[in-house]
Design brief:
Layout (H helix, E strand, L loop, with lengths): L2 E5 L6 E5 L7 H14 L4 E6 L4 H10 L4 E3 L6 H11 L5 E5 L17 H8 L3 E5 L6 H12 L6 E7 L3 H15 L3 E5 L9 E2 L2 E2 L8 H15 L2 H9 L7 E5 L8 E5 L4 E3 L2 H9 L3 E5 L13 E4 L1 E2 L5 H6 L1 H12 L4 E4 L1 H6 L2 E3 L5 E3 L7 E4 L6 E8 L11 E7 L2 E3 L6 E4 L6 E4 L1 E3 L2 E4 L2 E2 L5 H22 L1
Length: 469
């Protein structure tokens, strides 16, 4: 039996931070503002547009609570509003960080899922983050193009990043005269607060040395050079959103235990996915394939998410006890869901960055290897060729791929298709108790996937009990 969940609507002050393109400093600005809001006791909620795991980690490090994604390729507009309203419960303000350029959406030729689209759906004012560099009037031309490219762009303010005090004094009156919207402040160059990056973007929050000190410095600077009261007043101008309702699949009567791999090697999970598994009756517990001897004894299912197993291939391999425990659990019929890095861990072996090959769990054949370039990446819709753990034959779910490692046997039980494109490829190993492949799935795009996983975990728990009797 399905059941109804209502997201209580209330008029939370909110704002979308967007930019002309990547590299303008959206994440730096978002972290600075979130820390300011936290310092002021405003209990901020943070959202990131697009299929991004790493920026929400920075957001959550700042606010000390859960951060969420906001993606309008994965879900329709009403479901996105539902997830937003759920994510802001108990919070005082909300900041949504855009991805790439303001209008950049699906396939690079649509505004769907862009920061512009998100702002329209959430009725949120937009502040553009711009890095002037050596430009002045040309910057006004660029920003004017963003304001006028679509009707009702929602752009109501500007923040300048990596801008000197003198340059700001020149730019502020000129931009306000040319554009007719306020310039609300700036951050100067702060190389001591730089956030390092690697091939998947920024390094994870846990890896940034002196992160708390960097965030404190950014917030202190923002208090000095950004009009925080003006920004909060703009956020408060957002109109109310209507209450949204979501019909969920039946909740499991018993509470199966889902063991989630979480450490430096496995850290990429959509928070909404985890919350949905709990809504459907699952109990999440955590273990480290790097440090622990295996999943917890009470585990009824395994969820191995993405991350950077290639950077820790030697350590993962040397933890033979955990590798064998995972393989034994899979051989006993325990449900196993593995995405991207988790899929690489299930294979026979994994090459590290130097090309050395290390034994992995051996649940699946194949070897993971570096390609030296970003191959299959971006949004995908995955269609299963066969009935298995997560779905029935021809069921579809949306997600994304983004990886520099490939596999000699990536699977052929499903196929992934890029939106607004003819490009597709085979992927995923699936069976009655297994789903493993490169795609990162977004459960709210097909609630049945999460429901079947929880149900399979509950059935495994029941089977264990019956076997003991």
């Amino acid at each position: 039996m399905c059941w109804e969940v209502k997201a209580v609507a209330y008029n939370i002050p909110r704002l979308v931070l967007a930019a002309p393109g990547s590299g303008a400093g959206k994440t730096t600005m978002a972290c600075a503002l979130l820390q300011v809001m936290m310092n002021r006791g405003l209990s901020p909620a943070a959202f990131k547009c697009g299929p991004d795991y790493i920026d929400p980690m920075f957001h959550s490090q700042v606010i000390g609570a859960k951060a969420h994604n906001m993606d309008l390729y994965f879900v329709p507009e009403d479901r996105a509003r539902f997830l937003f309203q759920e994510g802001i419960q108990g919070c005082g303000v909300a900041l949504i960080e855009g991805a790439m350029g303001f209008y950049d959406g699906v396939a690079g030729k649509s505004t769907q899922a862009s920061a512009y689209h998100v702002a329209q759906v959430l009725k949120a004012p937009v502040v553009l983050v711009a890095q002037p560099g050596g430009s002045s009037l040309t910057l006004a031309a660029t920003l004017k193009g963003l304001l006028e490219f679509r009707e009702e762009s929602g752009c109501q303010g500007i923040l300048l990043n990596r801008c000197s005090k003198g340059h700001y004094a020149l730019l502020k009156p000129m931009l306000e005269e040319e554009l007719g919207i306020p310039v609300l402040g700036y951050l100067p160059p702060m190389p001591e607060c730089a956030l390092e990056s690697r091939h998947l973007g920024l390094v994870t929050a846990e890896e940034v040395s002196g992160l708390r000190e960097k965030l404190a410095a950014l917030a202190a600077q923002a208090e000095e050079t950004i009009d925080i009261p003006g920004l909060l007043e703009l956020m408060a101008s957002a109109p109310p959103l209507e209450e949204e309702v979501l019909i969920l699949p039946s909740r499991s009567i018993i509470q199966p235990v889902i063991a989630l791999a979480r450490d430096k090697a496995f850290c990429f999970y959509y928070q909404e996915n985890l919350e949905l598994l709990e809504k459907l009756g699952g109990k999440l517990v955590y273990f480290s394939p790097l440090e622990d001897e295996g999943p917890p004894e009470e585990a009824d299912a395994l969820y191995l998410g993405g991350g950077y197993p290639e950077l820790y291939a030697r350590q993962l391999s040397q933890n033979q006890a955990c590798r064998e425990a995972v393989k034994q659990a899979a051989s006993r019929g325990m449900p196993v869901l593995a995405e991207c890095g988790g899929f690489l861990y299930l294979q026979k072996s994994l090459q590290d960055e130097e090309g050395s090959s290390w034994p992995m769990a051996g649940v699946l054949p194949g070897e993971g290897f570096p390609t030296g370039k970003l191959g299959r990446f971006g949004y995908v819709e995955v269609t299963s060729w066969r009935t298995g753990l997560m779905c029935r034959r021809e069921d579809k779910i949306r997600g994304h791929e983004f990886h520099y490692w490939d596999s000699t046997q990536p699977g052929e039980d499903a196929f992934a298709k890029k939106p607004l494109s003819t490009r597709s490829w085979e992927c995923v190993h699936t069976g009655r108790t297994l789903w493993a492949g490169f795609p990162h799935l977004y459960f709210y795009s097909n609630l049945g996937f999460a429901a079947r996983f929880v149900t399979a975990a509950a059935e495994y728990q029941k089977q264990k009990r019956d076997d003991k009797q």
